[in-house]
Amino acid sequence: MKAAVRPTTIIQSVKLNRHLGFDVVLASETFQHTGSFKFRAAYNLAKNVDQNTILTESSGNFGQALAYACQLLDKKCIVVMPSTSAQVKVDAVRGFGGIAELTDVKVKSRRARLEELIKDFPEAYVASAYNDKYVIEGNASLGREICELSQSIDYVVAPVGGGGLTSGIIKGIKQCGKNIKVIGAEPTMANDASRSIKSWKDYGKRSRTTNHRRWCSCFSYRQFKLGNSQRWN
Ligand SMILES: Cc1ncc(COP(=O)(O)O)c(C=O)c1O
Hints:
The chain is α/β, with parallel strands linked by helices. It folds into 2 domains: 38-127, Rossmann fold (3-Layer(aba) Sandwich); 133-232, Rossmann fold (3-Layer(aba) Sandwich). It has helices at residues 14-20, 38-48, 61-73, 87-95, 110-120, 133-147, 164-176, 192-203, 210-232, and strands spanning 9-12, 25-28, 53-57, 76-82, 99-103, 125-127, 155-159, 181-185. It has a 4-stranded parallel β-sheet with strand order 5-4-3-6, with helices on both faces. A two-stranded antiparallel sheet has the order 1-2. It has a two-stranded parallel ribbon with strand order 7-8. β3, α3 and β4 (76-82) form a beta-alpha-beta unit. It is globular, with a radius of gyration of 18 Å. The structure holds pyridoxal-5'-phosphate (PLP). Residues 36, 38, 61, 129-130, 159-166 line the site of pyridoxal-5'-phosphate.
C-alpha cells in the first residue's frame, strides 16, 4: 500500500490556528491519485481480491479510483454510474480503462443495473465503496499516517457518507494504539449518515450499512454527539 499511495498532504496555517484558538492540521487527499482518498480503498481492494473483474456502483470518486487501481493491477472494472454523473468523472473512468455503465436512474436504479451485471459476470467481485473490509483496510492507511504525524492529534474530523473513510481512519488509529477521537462530519442538509445511525439506534436494524453498525456506532457515535449534540438530536 505505502508504495502505491501518495502520502497525504499536510497543510497548516498560523493565521487559521490564531483565528480558531487551537491548532488545526489539514490532511488533504486532493493530491492523492485520482484526486481523493478513494484510491487507498480501491487499490487495496483490487490488489487483495482474487477476482480479475470488479463491479461497483459509484457516481464518481470511487469509480475512477477503482478504474485506475484496476489499470495498474491489470484487472477489469465495470462502474455503474447515473447518467447524470459529471462528464469529467465518466471520462476519468473510461480514461483509466474502466467500463462506465450509465443508467438513467429514473428508469433503472444503479442497484438494479448492478444486479443485472452480477448475473452477466457471476465470477466478478462486487465492491461497495464503503461497506467492504478491503475498502476500510485501505482507508486505514490514512489513519496510520495521521498517527505518524509529528504533531500530537486529539481529534480527527472527517467527512462521512457511507462510513468507509471514518471506519478506516478509526481502524488505522486503533492499529497504532493511539487514543484519537474521530468525528464524522456531513452537511446538515444531507445528513444521511447521522440519520442512518440514529435510525439503527432507535429501531435496531435499519442502519444503511453493517459497516456503520460495526464501526461508527461503536466508535464514532459518541464523537458525533460530542461534536454537535444539538444537531445530532
Ligand atoms: C471526496 C469524498 N469525501 C468523503 C466521502 C465520504 O466517504 P465514505 O462514503 O467512505 O464515508 C466521499 C464518498 O463518496 C467522497 O467522495
